[in-house]
Amino acid sequence: MRDASILLRLVHEAMVALNVDVQRIYHECGITSDHIQDKKARLKHKANTRFWQVAEEVTGDQSIGLHVAEHIPLYRGQVLEYLFLSSQTFGDGLNRALNYQRLLSDVAQTYLSIESDRAALVFDTALGDQVDHHFIECIMFGVIRFFQSFTDGAFNPIEIELIFDEPINKAEYERVFGSPVFFKKTKNAIIFPAEILNYQSQHAEPELIDLHEEVAEAHVAKIEKQDLVYQIRQILSEHLDKKEVSLELVAEALQLSPRNLRAQLSALGTNFNQVLSEYRTLLAKRLLERTQEPIDEICYLLGFSEISAFYRAFKRWTGMTPVEYRKQAKTESLV
Question: What is the C-alpha end-to-end distance of the chain, expressed in Å?
Fold first, then answer.
């Protein structure tokens, strides 16, 4: 499960504003500037969880997520914002955005619930009760700010519900959220008047909705492709050096029929041979760059029966022989 880098980038800006020692946090978490600046990156969610644990340790603030949330910049310039803005009403925009929430996080399973005159945006997750409270508090406050911006300040929560134990600084939570906050509830939720769902967007452009949904669907398809390719690579890593891998072997490991796997890959614009070739290329480059493994051993690890076949394949992939590639990689590392 992964999160979009935009979440970390917004948190980064907030922490800088708070004069938090972000470099120390990043160093301990293995986070680099590339993770923050790459708009297309998706980070493993467990790295996000580790990030908040270290942030609490470094700052000594048990409510660091809450305090970071106060300084988070407004969420801007992403397709989910455009889906909101082009919709006729706040409710329409919210429902459209929920359809594509995976663009922000694989963990998110947020849904809208309406009972009489009250609505609840429930922040359910694939992690259940194990979700980090800093992460949820930060996300919920960021969502409230975005909703207030969209509705020109008309969106105001009735109350906030959190599944976590009540902290000693409950009043601080109510100050930040600007509404009553209740703990040890059955769900993490923002409760608000249902009538705000009918709020008319000042930026509605219905003619652009289809375009924005096309873009959102394309982004989701790319994530789904990455998911399937990642699963295939995991299987390849276990079998590549043991026997000749095949679509049939991978399909069996995924509990799919070969036909189904072939169809899924085709729908994502790729095929098994392409995924296998790309993985072999990636693994070969890593082994040549980062290890001193003999080339005949690398040939074996990649599943080639003959070293000549590996040489031909590698030259086709990179335009260089394995020896030339390793020599160039070593030269560049010295510059």
Answer: 37
